TrEMBL record:
InterPro entries hit by this protein: ABC-4_Integral_Memb_Prot, ABC3_permease_C, ABC_permease_BceB-typ
Organism: Clostridium simiarum
Keyword Membrane: yes
Listed PANTHER family: ABC TRANSPORTER PERMEASE, ABC TRANSPORTER PERMEASE-RELATED-RELATED
Keyword entries, A-Z: Cell membrane, Membrane, Transmembrane, Transmembrane helix, Transport
ABC3 transporter permease C-terminal domain mapped to chain residues: 59-173
Transmembrane segments: 17-35, 55-76, 110-138, 150-169, 203-226, 232-255, 283-305, 560-577, 613-633, 648-673
Membrane topology annotation: Multi-pass membrane protein
Name of the protein this chain belongs to: ABC transporter permease
């Protein structure tokens, strides 16, 4: 008997809370899809860092568990409140509290199981999409193949059951403590319209607004560090909740003043509905705002990384293989023998980079380049300081080597007069080199050289062919300079074999403190912020490092997207279920409006406004909170990476995607709400 009743009630709950059911299906599908990535043989074959994907998705899963537990707990309590009279009736006809509690728990377990099964099927589809995207990042062909991994299924099931257990335990205890009177009148509690301590609430509202401004100032001033970031974020979260305490108070005070505008076109009805809803859902609305804010910022970061991966990552390395040595006489025999053994060499060039104890361009960049002038934490260089951005001296290359390297990677050769020079620089720094050419003089052997061009093609300038820049001079001018370090650039047939990077590094003399065993050269690696070579700067194998870079980008992007999608769906589910579940209550209120003379079209218009205000409130608050931070992040990202995109693009795309999902939920809620209100 109890089982049949539980099944009937579970079916009814699936119908009444369809949005919740769909969200749990999507959430379980996403969990299964991302867990399948961990166990996928196809993905693991491309993974450059063992365990990294598992760690990142595992970290994301912690946040997902917290949010889904909150959602399930919220929904269970919500359903408990809506069905409290039904439970009270069960007690009146002789059922025990334990039986009622068990009945409700079984219903929710059945509802969870019903959402999990289609979720796994959805997860199989999402797994194919994610894997195809993963392969496309590495420029690999992917053949669709259904890979149903039992390990991924068990992991997803375990997490799913764990989430439900956490939510059900608390609700079961609450249900057991309630008596018949509590259950019979629980759903009759009206939304409060009193406004105690209104002045204090309004003050707290302004305090929260001032904190938002303070937070933005801290970001733009560059005053957010590891030491204070957690305190600042905690203050931001608290301010979000304080803001909602003040909003309802302002609306109530506005209504109580009884200004003429309150009574126009159902405005009083809407204000009364909205203020009471905000007042009874202050914590929930604050939480939804935080979720939307996190989703918008997460989406912005994902857009940044995807754009960089698509536009700039491949430009970081121009040559198939590059090897660095502080020994200016190095012939790289051991490394070249190893390369010959593992692949076929098409072309190679062994050459020197030169210096003449000058650091004119270095100092010019320290004084003018935004990396140093706009970044308070950047290390400036003078005679008593060292920095790993640039070498100790300006770096030079002779024209013959430069043209040989240009031929190797398919660029046209250039010409240069005996008294001229060229600058090859990373594209984002071109304007600074043009400024140097116009404002400064390059003097060698007492004679001023004339700048005859600035080139910006990808040229491996993160500690190899200079650090950010290299000065090209005639072979005659170089004769008066000292060799600084040696390089070999190698062009090979096809892609480098897996593991060549590691094998070559074993032959390197590179040490952990960036010093080489035979000299005092401090190895530089440029001002790149996203893809920095660091300790790998002495040995560069393009295929190996590009795969590593793409993997790291993907490994970072996937969990962020994972969390953002779940956060959005959870937040929108709360908004939808709240309104749809109250539609019966609103049905009476709208019937009163009908009796007062409003036609169906006018009532539909009021419904649209009511839902619109309710839906837009947390979204607009999230946009107001996140937009400054997101645009600041985007601006710095464009500056420091040289990506040719507007700083508005990343946040705009994130907002559009969120708005698309938002619109789907809103339309579904609006259609269902109208149907519930108008049906007889």
């Amino acid at each position: 008997m109890l089982g049949k009743l539980a099944i009937r009630n579970a079916k009814r709950s699936t119908r009444d809370y369809l949005v919740y059911f769909i969200t749990m299906t999507i959430a379980s599908g996403l969990m299964f899809a991302f867990n399948s990535m961990i166990f996928s043989k196809d993905v693991r074959a491309l993974c450059a860092i063992g365990g990294a994907m598992e760690a990142m998705i595992g970290l994301a899963s912690i946040f997902i568990i917290i949010i889904l537990t909150w959602l399930i707990n919220y929904m269970i309590n919500f359903m408990m409140e809506k069905r409290s009279k039904e439970f009270g009736t069960y007690l009146l006809i002789g059922m025990k509290k334990k039986e009622v509690s068990n009945l409700f728990m079984i219903e929710n377990q059945l509802l969870g199981a019903a959402a999990f099964i289609p979720g796994v099927l959805l997860g199989l589809l999402l797994q194919q999409i994610l894997t195809a995207i993963f392969y496309s990042v590495f420029n690999k062909d992917y053949q669709i193949s259904i890979e149903f991994n039992i390990g991924a299924l068990l992991l997803t099931l375990g997490l799913y059951v764990f989430i439900y257990i956490l939510a059900l335990i608390r609700s079961k205890k609450k249900l057991k403590k309630m008596n018949i009177n509590d259950m019979m009148y629980m759903d009759k509690q009206n939304q409060s319209f009193d406004d105690k301590n209104s002045k204090m609430k309004q003050i707290l509202f302004f305090v929260s607004i001032l904190y938002f401004i303070f937070f933005d100032v801290m970001i733009f001033g560059g005053w957010i560090y590891i030491e204070n970031v957690f305190f600042l974020i905690a203050g931001l979260i608290i301010s979000v909740y304080l803001m909602y305490y003040g909003i309802s108070s302002f609306i109530i005070q506005y209504i109580k003043k009884e200004k003429s505008g309150v009574y126009k076109s159902g405005k009083l009805f809407l204000l009364r509905q909205f203020s009471s809803k905000i007042k009874t859902m202050q914590f929930t609305m604050g939480t939804l705002t935080i979720l939307f804010t996190a989703s918008l910022l997460g989406g912005t970061v994902s857009m940044m990384l995807c754009d960089y991966n698509k536009k700039e990552l491949d430009k970081a390395i121009a040559f198939d293989i590059m090897l660095f040595s502080d020994n200016v006489q190095d012939d790289f025999k051991n490394q070249l023998d190893l390369i010959n053994k593992e692949t076929e060499i098409k072309d190679k060039r062994i050459y020197n980079i030169y210096e003449d104890k000058a650091e004119d361009i270095n100092q010019f960049l320290y004084n003018n380049y935004y990396y140093f002038t706009e970044n308070p934490s950047a290390i400036y260089k003078d005679k008593d300081r060292n920095t790993n951005e640039y070498f100790d001296y300006d770096t030079y290359m002779k024209l013959s080597d430069y043209n040989a390297l240009r031929r190797m990677i398919g660029y046209e050769e250039v010409t240069l007069s005996e008294d001229g020079y060229l600058i090859h620089v990373k594209e984002r720094m071109k304007e600074y080199m043009l400024k140097y050419r116009n404002e400064e003089k390059l003097v060698k052997e007492g004679k001023e050289l004339k700048c005859e061009g600035v080139y910006t093609e990808p040229f491996s300038q993160s500690g190899q062919n200079g650090s950010d820049y290299i000065i090209i001079v005639s072979d005659r001018v170089v004769e008066k300079m000292s060799p600084f370090y040696s390089l070999v650039a190698v062009d090979i047939e096809g892609d480098a074999p897996e593991g060549l990077q590691e094998n070559l590094e074993k032959l390197s003399k590179f040490k952990d403190d960036y010093k080489y065993e035979t000299s005092n050269i401090t190895h530089a690696y440029g001002t790149d912020q996203i893809f920095s070579f660091g300790e790998t700067g002495s040995t560069i194998v393009k295929t190996n490092l590009m795969n590593l870079g793409k993997f790291v980008m993907t490994m970072t992007t996937y969990p962020i997207v994972y969390m953002a999608l779940v956060f959005v769906c959870v937040a929108l589910t709360i908004l939808s279920v709240q309104q749809l579940s109250d539609s019966n209550k609103y049905k009476f209120r709208y019937s009163v409006l009908s009796k007062l003379g409003l036609n169906e079209k006018e009532i539909d218009n009021i419904i649209l406004k009511q839902l619109g205000v309710y839906y837009l409130c947390p979204l607009l608050a999230a946009v107001a909170i996140s937009i400054v931070t997101a645009l600041f992040m985007s601006k710095k990202f464009v500056l420091y990476t040289g990506v040719h995109s507007s700083m508005f693009l990343y946040y705009g795309m994130s907002l559009i995607l969120l708005g698309f999902i938002y619109t789907i939920y809103f339309i579904a809620t609006y259609v269902s709400f109208k149907r519930n209100v108008h049906e007889s």
